[in-house]
């Protein structure tokens, strides 16, 4: 059985073009007959985040039969079954479908292959249904944003997948720094330890964003809409949201970005210090951080410039527009 879903409300991670297998768009839930009700619950719970989500009844060769037709399999079964039935099919992490297993009670969501290529994404989505994502990829375990995850947030794709081993190690060691943006036409010569990201669409503006702790989704929505309206722009002009690492876990911002279909990139303090904006900031005096909204907008913009200086909305959310 299959269910095709409307992608209008899906998150950025599910909408970005998937030339290198970095996101999951077409999902198959593999379930035993007795677990079909749970499979239907999963479709109802997260199906609108994907282009399509099918339910396949388990039999011994089901993975082999459908291998290559889906970005990710959700195995509604013990992890050992999924591992034994797919081990001989695995060839290359950039081409293989991802696999995430979940138990019948939706207690655990465990990516077992392709964590950075769809399985972590699916596990995160299953968390909205109560499952605990059991991430074992190093960058997620260290609460850092690996290059594949940065590519998703930037609506880009990795051109040279083998390079991510070296660059993600640099992420773990805090040695990678911000992604460099290069406008063409140019020819670029890189070594094997340089990851190249290619944008999936034309450059737009970046919303640099700071907030008070606990600002809610609607406050972010209102702030972004007003900032764009004052600049004679709309949400289709926005590439992504930029902020500082100290604000990267703001639930209201993350939820608002997901509803807008945008990714979030977070910059370290040391990076933002090199891109301070023109408006004085109290955070500089109080905690030593430059103003997050302007500095992150400048750091993230393709021209490292401000289109609109920061404005504070509802005494809760600060927004600047970079380009």
TrEMBL record:
Keyword Cell cycle tagged:
no
Q: Identify the EC number(s).
A: 3.7.1.12
Enumerate the spans annotated as Cobalamin synthesis G N-terminal domain. Answer: 62-140
Q: Which UniProt keywords apply?
A: Hydrolase
Question: Per the record, which residues fall in region Disordered?
Answer: 1-21
InterPro entries from the xrefs?
CbiG_hydrolase (IPR052553), CbiG_N (IPR021744), CobE/GbiG_C (IPR002750), CobE/GbiG_C_sf (IPR036518), GbiG_N_sf (IPR038029)
Q: Identify the enzyme class.
A: hydrolase
Residue intervals of the CobE/GbiG C-terminal domain: 205-321
> Gene3D superfamilies under this entry?
3.40.50.11220, CobE/GbiG C-terminal domain
Domain of life assignment: Archaea
Q: Which GO terms describe its biological process?
A: cobalamin biosynthetic process
Stretches of the chain forming a coiled coil according to its record: none
Q: Name one GO molecular function term.
A: cobalt-precorrin-5A acetaldehyde-lyase activity
Pfam families reported in the protein's UniProt record: CbiG_C, CbiG_N
Where is there biased composition of kind Low complexity?
1-13
PANTHER family reported in the protein's UniProt record = COBALT-PRECORRIN-5A HYDROLASE (PTHR37477:SF1)
Name it. Answer: Cobalamin biosynthesis protein CbiG
């Amino acid at each position: 059985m299959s269910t095709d879903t409307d992608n209008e409300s899906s998150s950025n991670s599910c909408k970005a073009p998937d030339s290198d297998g970095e996101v999951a768009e077409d999902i198959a839930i593999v379930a035993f007959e007795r677990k079909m009700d749970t499979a239907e619950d999963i479709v109802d719970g997260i199906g609108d985040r994907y282009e399509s989500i099918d339910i396949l009844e388990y039999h011994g060769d089901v993975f082999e039969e459908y291998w290559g037709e889906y970005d990710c399999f959700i195995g509604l079964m013990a992890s050992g079954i999924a591992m034994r039935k797919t081990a001989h099919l695995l060839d290359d992490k950039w081409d293989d479908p991802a696999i995430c297993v979940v138990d019948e009670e939706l207690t655990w969501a465990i990516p077992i292959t392709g964590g950075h290529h769809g399985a972590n994404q699916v596990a995160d989505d299953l968390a909205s249904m109560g499952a605990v994502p059991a991430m074992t990829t190093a960058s997620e375990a260290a609460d850092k944003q690996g290059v594949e995850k940065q590519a998703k947030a930037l609506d880009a794709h990795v051109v040279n997948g083998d390079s991510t081993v070296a660059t993600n190690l640099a992420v773990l060691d805090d040695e990678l720094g911000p992604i460099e943006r290069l406008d063409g036409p140019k020819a670029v010569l890189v070594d094997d330890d340089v990851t190249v990201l290619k944008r999936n669409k034309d450059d737009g503006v970046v919303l640099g964003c700071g907030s008070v702790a606990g600002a809610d989704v609607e406050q972010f929505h209102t702030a972004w809409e007003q900032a764009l309206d004052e600049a004679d722009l709309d949400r289709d002009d926005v590439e992504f949201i930029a902020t500082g690492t100290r604000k990267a876990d703001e639930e209201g911002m993350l939820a608002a970005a997901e509803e807008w279909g945008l990714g979030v990139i977070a910059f370290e303090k040391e990076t933002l210090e090199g891109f301070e904006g023109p408006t004085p900031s109290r955070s500089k005096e109080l905690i030593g951080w430059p103003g997050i909204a302007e500095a992150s907008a400048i750091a993230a913009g393709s021209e490292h410039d401000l289109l609109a200086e920061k404005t504070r909305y509802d005494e809760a959310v600060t927004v600047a527009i970079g380009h």
